[in-house]
Amino acid sequence: MIYVHVHHITDRVGAKRKAVSASTQGEVPFTTNDSPINEMWVVVICERIRADNLDLMLCADMGTEPADFILSSPDKLVFVHVKCGGAQHRPESSAGALAEVGGQAIKNLEILTTMRRDLKPGNWSIMSSHWPKPASVPALHERIRLVDGKRFTNVGQAEEVRENKLVDIWNMIADRRASPAVSKEIWMIVGNAFSRNHFETQLRRGRAAASESLQAFQLIDSWQSTAANNDVALKIFVSP
């Protein structure tokens, strides 16, 4: 359930990286309020979902967001939640490092699993705008990163074209979240804030473990239970 971030990219993933690099030509790398999320994040994310099968990638960040990214293939729907920490030294394993991103993930279970086709995210009104904000410099022109397995192109940056494609995308998401043949997953990606090695070391100490690590265990256990009750798989990506 808890994974270590990929640091060494294989040749096979390297080929994907080149494809992603080409798809973002002329735009800036992804950024958040905290720190940059460069194209390598996208490569790792694509690889985890088996990039050859990935046909949808939507940047859903900002506002009352359902997730930072929504990824999908014909048999999988993934809501990705990302938080980048600012640890000056090697991170440990406190509950606080996970709390924000985990809270965001769990409170959006409904929109990941609902059968209601008309339920859209709270930030739907800004989905057609540049990311992270319309006036941001720099910014991504298109939140739609991939559709039907190809990069979304909007040569004239026409808002009507973008809005129509967003409707098509959300109809696809609604179909897939309602289908029992499509597995649902939550990915929590926590960069430079939580160490798997530190967490495992503390848990091996039993009652002598650091209180913060025990609290993290309780949080993860609670999230895992909640996700499982909704037939959703939970995966957490952290630092080594």
Low-confidence regions = 5-40
Helical residues, percent: 25-40%
Distance between the termini: 14 Å
The fraction of residues assigned to DSSP E strands is 15-25%
Mean pLDDT: 81
What's the gyration radius in Å? 18 Å
What does this protein structure show overall?
- It contains 7 helices and 9 strands.
- The protein has 240 residues and is α/β, with parallel strands linked by helices.
- The chain has one domain.
- The strands form 2 sheets. The protein has a 7-stranded mixed sheet, with helices on one face.
Summarize the structure.
The chain is of the alpha/beta class. The chain has one domain (2-238).
What is the element layout, followed by pairings?
Elements lengths: L1 E3 L6 H13 L6 E2 L4 E2 L1 H10 L7 E4 L9 E5 L2 E9 L11 H11 L2 H5 L30 E4 L11 H20 L4 E9 L4 H9 L6 H19 L2 E7 L2
Parallel strand pairs: 1-9, 6-8, 8-9
Antiparallel strand pairs: 2-3, 4-5, 4-7, 5-6
List keywords for this structure.
single chain; 240 residues; alpha/beta; seven-stranded mixed sheet; two-stranded antiparallel sheet; 7 helices
